[in-house]
Design brief:
single chain; alpha/beta; Rossmann fold; 2 domains; 11-stranded mixed beta sheet; 7-stranded antiparallel beta sheet; 19 helices; 42% helix; binds adenosine-5'-diphosphate; binds magnesium ion
């Protein structure tokens, strides 16, 4: 849908306050020291100074849609400003973002608003619940009232100025030309904003004009930190855009990347909820892959159905657990009840499993041998050869990136294997040193589609892994499958949509957020779109997940 765009004046008015930080000090100059000669080259100006070599200036003009197009909330603005800040902080030359204010004809603007309001009204007749249109209408009405009450408005034009100095003119010229071109391209790609490296004549005029107006607005860029401070970035935005964040996709309807700070939030656990086919497995694999690529924290994937196997990148070590033996899950849960409380002695642990699953219940032939048990459970790959019987599954906490794939198992076999894996995981965990820092993410797809026995361990993992620096990334089809007493241990909730109203209600209940219209938003989400709630924050974000896989 196309909406006529003239949002810049709106922006200027709404965000004026933000820009008042760091006004340029009077008398500041681009070049200090006395200048011998000024040269206008193709796209930069070079000053030859009397005693300190050369200094050059290049400038990138940005389309003012940087701060307007698609921008409907302070949040969007901050995201963009921060991404821009990050790009700028990578530039070697000295860099400044300047925003020239241009005042605007009030009569002209009122007319424009009236026109836009009436075209919005037409759109709203057919789409009266479209939240974005409503928001836009409210914004325009606010602006209209402000203008009527005599408040001044203007629009802003952003420029990025690059400055380099050196004893050699050649080095100044080549550095600036390259950096200006690269930066302009990076901004266009990342923010979807038109950029242009100004020709030197234009640049000269622009600089003059900028210094003639009093005072131009300047945001100094000492780095991201400083920029976000300067812009009074709300903390939640700062962290979701932290460079450590894992890219999940884009905020719905925008090109604004959404980054999830897994290092910060991971140990608070992540729960992905969604009906079949909405993209849970894809999202899990995407996060696992991106963490692998970024080498940030270690990842263990327990894949009960083998769904992620083909999605995971090459670097993951794969352990396959398969068995054609049918194991009765009732017996398995008995076994694991027996297992409870017997940590400490591995031999006892094995005995318990053997006796519990096969011994007492099987009756004929006495307890199984270790090898028989291995075969029956299909867990051979998990152990070293006898006689040491040392768990190779230590790899579950020592391999940096591994996937344990349980395809080819019967349901019963899978249930037992998952329970065993989880108990091993816990045991291995207890041998590591406690920490609050995220070391590893344990990913389990459809973590609650399992046996009672496994549930016992799932619950313990949720409660205990955090203290050992292990975060959980679990998925489930429905909130109902997750036990009441652990659901609030999940700090991050990522919910896919569904038309089913009881599903939607259950999501709203666990995120505890009652803003009007969330139910509709959740219902309207398509495949690959999800709502995300970060720990301790009431703010919800809606994202188009951009998968790493396929
Ligand atoms: N982010 C996404 N964008 C586009 N299509 C997606 C996305 N995530 C999943 N899909 C599509 O939906 C299908 C089902 O995804 P999947 O992750 O298996 O869902 P689930 O695990 O919830 O059943 C995938 O095969 C893929 O074609
Ligand atoms: Mg799935």
């Amino acid at each position: 849908m196309l909406i006529p765009l003239f949002a810049s004046p709106l922006v200027a008015l709404l965000y004026n306050k933000t820009f008042k930080v760091g006004l340029i000090r009077n008398g500041e100059r681009f070049v200090s020291g006395s200048v011998k000669r000024v040269e206008l080259l193709d796209s930069l100006i070079v000053f030859e100074r009397r005693d300190r070599g050369y200094i050059g200036i290049a400038c990138i003009g940005l389309d003012d849609t940087l701060f307007s197009e698609k921008m409907r909330s302070p949040e969007d603005f901050f995201s963009r400003a921060l991404i821009l800040g990050r790009l700028l902080s990578n530039v070697k030359a000295e860099v400044e973002l300047r925003i020239a204010k241009v005042s605007i004809d009030v009569m002209e603007l009122s007319k424009k608003i009236e026109r836009e309001l009436s075209s919005l009204r037409v759109l709203l007749e057919s789409q009266s619940t479209d939240e974005r249109l409503l928001e836009r209408e409210r914004g325009l009405k606010r602006l209209y009232e402000k203008i009527r009450s005599g408040e001044k408005v203007g629009w802003m034009k952003p420029y990025i100025i690059l400055r380099a100095s050196d004893d050699s003119k050649e080095r100044v010229v080549s550095a600036l030309e390259r950096e200006a071109e690269e930066l302009a391209r990076a901004i266009t790609i990342t923010l979807g904003v038109q950029t242009r490296v100004l020709k030197s004549k234009e640049l000269g005029r622009m600089l003059e004009a900028m210094f003639a107006t009093t005072p131009p607005v300047k945001i100094s860029l000492g780095g991201e930190e400083e920029l976000s401070k300067a812009l009074a970035m709300p903390p939640y935005e700062r962290e979701s855009l932290d460079p450590r964040g894992v890219f999940l996709g884009y905020r719905v309807g925008t090109k604004i990347p959404f980054l999830y700070d897994v290092v910060r939030h991971g140990t608070r656990h992540i729960l992905v909820i969604g009906p079949t086919g909405k993209g849970k497995t894809t999202l899990l694999a995407t996060i696992a892959n991106r963490l692998y690529v970024r080498n940030q924290v270690d990842v263990t994937v327990i894949d009960p159905k083998g769904d992620t196997e083909y999605m995971l990148l090459k670097g993951f070590s794969r352990f396959r657990i398969s068995s054609s033996t049918v194991i009765n899950s009732r017996k398995a849960s008995l076994a694991f009840r027996v297992l409870e409380g017997v940590y400490g002695s591995r031999e006892k642990w094995f005995e318990s499993v053997q006796n519990g699953v096969y011994g007492r219940e099987r009756n004929e032939g006495g307890p199984m041998t270790f090898e028989e048990l291995e075969r029956a459970l299909g867990v051979k790959l998990l152990y070293a050869d006898p006689p040491s019987r040392e768990f190779q599954l230590n790899s579950i906490v020592t391999e940096r990136y591994s996937a344990i794939i349980l395809d080819n198992l019967t349901d019963d076999g899978r249930f037992v294997a998952i329970a065993i894996l989880m108990s091993l995981y816990l045991e291995a965990l207890y041998r590591t040193t406690p920490t609050n820092r995220l070391r590893r993410l344990l990913v389990i797809d459809e973590a609650w589609r399992s046996s009672e026995a496994a549930l016992y361990y799932t619950r313990r993992l949720v409660k205990e892994s955090r203290g050992f620096g292990v975060g959980l990334l679990f998925s489930t089809q429905t909130v109902k499958d997750v036990p009441e007493d652990v659901i609030h241990n999940f700090g991050t909730i990522i919910a896919f949509g569904s038309a089913d109203s009881s599903y939607v209600e259950s999501i709203i209940r666990i995120v505890g957020y009652k803003e009007r219209g969330i139910d509709k938003k959740l219902q309207a989400l398509g495949v690959g779109q999800a709502m995300i709630k970060l720990p301790d924050l009431a703010t919800l974000s809606f994202i188009d997940i951009d998968p790493e896989v396929l």
